[in-house]
Amino acid sequence: MILPWAVAAAALAVAVSAWVLARRSARRLTQLSQMYWELKYQHGELRAQVQQLTGAGSPRALPHDPPAQTEAFIPLASLKR
Known about the structure:
Radius of gyration: 24 Å
Oligomer: single chain
Number of domains: 1
Number of helices: 2
Number of strands: 0
Distance between the termini: 54 Å
Strand content: under 5%
Structural class: mainly alpha
Largest sheet: none
C-alpha cells in the first residue's frame, strides 16, 4: 500500500521539477530572443551610421555585409507592442 504512494510522490516530484525547469528555459529563451533582436537592431543602426559617415553613395561595401536592401529593418519587438 505504501509503494504506490511512494511512486506517485516520486512522479509528482519529477513532474514539478520538470515543470519548473521548462518555465525557466522558456523565460531564458524569451530573454535571449529579445537580446538577439535588440542586437540586430543596434547592428543595423550602426551600419547605417557608418554608411552615413563614409558617404551614402559609396560603392564599396564591407565583404561580410549582405547586398543592400530596399526596405528598412523593423525589429519584431516593436511589432509585438
